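hey
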């Protein structure tokens, strides 16, 4: 797609990503998460809507940095992905009173925005993925510090304490700077227990190799964005046990939930009466008061899948 200016291209990219967030949170009945017919105590559907709009300027900035990188005006290490993430988190928290709504999504979407900005006039999945790899492999110690600050600001639930570079340990930031540890290095440590970190480290395999191909097939079958969103969410959950749940209640419980998600899809999901009923049953089951069974990481990854579909030109 051709654009008349850098601002127009960056605005288009940010709107694609913003819309992906809106599609995902609107998908219902998305089991165990906030959606258009279900809230959490203290965090509502409207909080997510406000957050999606609020982070768009940060994603636009990321796209602008990608454009500058493609034009040779900056080098990859000057993109400032840590600033983008921290700025987006600040905007998210300032926009609503529901707390942390989008941290994982922001971490996944920021490199996608930069990578999309680096593209030419023709969209390419392979080129976008290559660009994402360049972005994440060029992160710096400053990026790591800013993301540490972003995580500290939201105090996400279920965050593992690490024996090295623990985000809750104030001395970790000094070690990062003194030893030149990058943001990618940090995510390598977390990748064994967090799917979002693993996506960064392994060049987004769940997004590109699992989520998007399945989404594309669902679009061909139904062309209904709500069904596509919910089914893509279930497909990811069925094959990748949610690491937020694993950290909260253990891997075994997360794997049980994945099996239930697979059964729902095997029964047709939202396209059949029994699939619909099983989906509602799982949604009710996962709504514990403390959100320990909420597949929040799956939601974040689903947003990234929807984002690249939007960038590819999808229109509802």
């Amino acid at each position: 797609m051709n654009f008349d200016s850098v601002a127009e291209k960056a605005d288009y990219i940010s709107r694609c990503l913003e819309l992906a967030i809106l599609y995902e949170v609107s998908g219902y009945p998305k089991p165990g998460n906030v959606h258009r017919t279900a809230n959490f105590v203290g965090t509502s559907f409207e909080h997510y809507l406000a957050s999606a709009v609020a982070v768009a300027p940060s994603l636009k900035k990321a796209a602008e940095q990608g454009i500058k990188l493609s034009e040779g005006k900056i080098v990859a290490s000057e993109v400032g992905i840590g600033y983008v993430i921290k700025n987006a988190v600040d905007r998210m928290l300032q926009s609503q009173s529901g707390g942390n709504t989008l941290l994982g999504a922001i971490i996944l979407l920021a490199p996608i925005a930069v990578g999309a900005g680096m593209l030419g006039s023709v969209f390419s999945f392979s080129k976008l993925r290559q660009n994402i790899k360049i972005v994440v492999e060029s992160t710096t110690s400053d990026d790591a510090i800013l993301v540490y600050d972003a995580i500290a600001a939201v105090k996400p639930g279920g965050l593992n304490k690490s024996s090295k570079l623990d985000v809750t340990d104030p001395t970790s930031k000094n070690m990062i700077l003194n030893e030149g540890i990058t943001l990618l290095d940090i995510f390598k440590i977390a990748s064994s227990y967090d799917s979002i970190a693993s996506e960064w480290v392994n060049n987004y395999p769940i997004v590109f190799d699992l989520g998007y191909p399945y989404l594309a097939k669902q679009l061909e079958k139904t062309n209904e964005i709500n069904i596509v969103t919910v089914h893509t969410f279930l497909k990811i959950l069925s094959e990748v046990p949610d690491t937020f749940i694993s950290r909260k209640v253990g891997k075994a419980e997360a794997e049980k939930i994945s099996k239930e998600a697979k059964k729902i899809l095997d029964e047709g999901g939202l396209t059949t009466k029994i699939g619909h009923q099983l989906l509602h049953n799982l949604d009710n089951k996962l709504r514990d008061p403390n959100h320990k069974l909420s597949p929040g990481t799956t939601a974040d990854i689903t947003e990234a899948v929807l984002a690249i579909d939007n960038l590819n030109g999808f229109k509802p």
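The two ends are 18 Å apart (CA to CA). The chain has a mean pLDDT of 94.
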